[in-house]
Amino acid sequence: MTRVLADERTGSAPSDRPEPVPSGTRTAAWVLAGASVAVLAVLIAGPPVLRDPLGLAGSLTGMAAVGYGTFRVAIPADRAPWRLMCVAAVLFLAGLVTRAVVPGAAVSPPTTAALVPDAFVVPGYLVTASAFAGLLNRRRANRDDPAWVDAVLVGVASMFLAWTFLVEPSLDQTGLPVIRLANSFFPVIDVVLIVLVAQLALAGGVRAPALWLLILGAVSLFTGDFLYAVRDGGLAGVPLAYINALFTSAYLLFGAATLHPSMRTLTEPQPIVVQPLSKARTVLIGLVLLIPAIVMSVGPAGGLLGTVVRTVLCALLVLAVLFRVVRSNNSRVRAEDAIRRRATHDALTDLPNRELLTDTVAAWGDRAVAEGHEISLLFLDLDRFKLVNDHWGHGVGDELLCAVAGRLSAHVRGHDLVCRIGGDEFVVALAGPSNEVLAEAAAGRVLDLFARPFPLSVGDVVVSASIGVASAASSTEALELIRDADTAMYQAKATGRNRYARFDTEMRDEVRDRTTLEQALRGALERGELYATYQPIIDLKTGELDGFETLMRWQHPTLGAVSPLRFIPIAEETGLIVGAGAWLLREAAAQLAIWRAAGPPRLHISVNVSVRQLRDRQLVGIVRDVLAETGLPPEALWLEITESGVMEDLETALATLDALRALGVTLAVDDFGTGYSSLSYLNRLPVGIVKLDRSFVSDVGAHGANESIVRAVLAMARALDLRVVAEGVETAVQRDWLRDQGCDLVQGWLYGKPLPASDIAIG
Fold first, then answer.
1. Are the beta carbons of 754 and 551 closer than 8 angstroms?
2. What is the reported pLDDT for 375?
3. CB 121, CB 93: distance < 8 Å
4. Under a CB-based contact definition with an 8 Å cutoff, are residues 100 and 106 in contact?
């Protein structure tokens, strides 16, 4: 299936896949190239007796090479231009044979018999030009490239010179005007071939050997035709052997180009690099215009036909230059438009970006006062978008972003603005009558859009969004409004995701306080402001101390004691928890080693591991090093994880947990009952301890509503051979009820609050 899809995307059938290049073709190509030079030398300076058989053999060899390269080397889907080269070779061969067998066809000055081979050779040139044009059409990926216009300029100027100095003098001679006209065709078509080959060379990309061989072949052909026109026009005495030598060399070079494996690149689109107009090209364009003007001014006056032809060619030159100027200007304008669009639109989704959003909101604000409107922003952030990238890859993540962009754009009003301002964040900007219900209704409709799955290449993918809503009149700055909507979006995430929250000023104060707290937290570990506290964990059956849970605390010099409920989430979001968590792990393990040496040898220490730490590949190595440094038995170290933290990236978490369990440490599920609480998930985790959340313990022993839940958790733990720790035990009633139900361990203020190690006596 994958291969078929690949064929569809490339627009080719399975049979058009590139076949391996036959072995030996590269060597054969260079042999033919060398033979073209040798044949040229022998035909010009060698014994006359060898000229005819060697010329015929060289021509036949070159034509055979064209045929072989077309059907064995060329890619099947790109053979059309090369097939035309084969047709041209057949026509040239027919012209060569008829010139040799038809009496008087090869004499000079020409007779009417010369028209017989010309009947084959003239179409051969036309087919060759079509073949070169086909190669150029496939190779030139960017039709905005000015190189082809410059090539046309050179071609028109060359035609002007060829007409003036070759064609017109030949036509002015008396006798056989049809033959003169036919012979005048060859310099003109050669100019066309040179123009086409020059464009192939200027079309960018790889300068392959096959391209240079084609160029040399075209130059050899052009030189031979030029000398032929001079000879038949009676303008100079040129030996026929020279002309035949050049033609034979051209056939061999064309055959070598077709055999060389790089001929495949001549039909592949090549990237165009449009560069500033160089001095050399500027001089060339100037000469192209100047030389015909000088010839028209100082040259001898010709007949009416000559004057008309030269005038038309000069007019074509002027029009070509004008076309180049206009095209260059239009290309520049399009490039500037593209640059402006790239600056104001997202490259992936083509939605407006933050810059255009800011400008639009500012422009709306200028009109809002007069119209009595307000501006509202819906700030969207996709929930758990990272899981999509981690599970399916960033390609599917980009698909999802484009699908979200398309769905949002299709379901807003025509004058609303949908923007992507970065990552998985989108903004919908609205302007309308001052009515907060309008923005909130729009937010509700957007949430409904995410209720339907997004069809992607991997199947249907469901994703939700958290939305922040902020509205303001014209006096509010655009960036401030975006910031307020962003703040409200974080509030929506904090309250459960897949919902919207409207901004109020209290949120701004919370953001300011959070920013202050975050800045203070950075460097707190290095300044010695973080410290560890330890809360005892008691064995219910014996009433003896079983171990401690280590809890991180923060004492700031000006903020005072900062609640972990405030700074732990910030540390988690910013990644500071990774370094702080590693420090706490080492601190707790070292303290346990001291206690075990001085008191009960079977004590354990329990340390919380955050979501960020679970994703950190260094965690397993850190735990291994801590065990080695302290000499603790692995089972004495308990690592506590939360259900929700594991489920954010289950596969990565499982890999880390399995590696930790392989070290021998004990794994515990913290705050059980507040997350997914699924038996199937719990059964997959390599844990030995379940910690029952304090919210379920608070009313046990007093016929509370949670007693049945606690009984169920205890029964499930026994079935899975897990031990249970009940958190938040504060009364003897709770303790006794839990003991009666078979709970293993407890912790809470009934036994002691978290204290620094210096305040705890062991032994």
1. yes
2. 86
3. no
4. yes
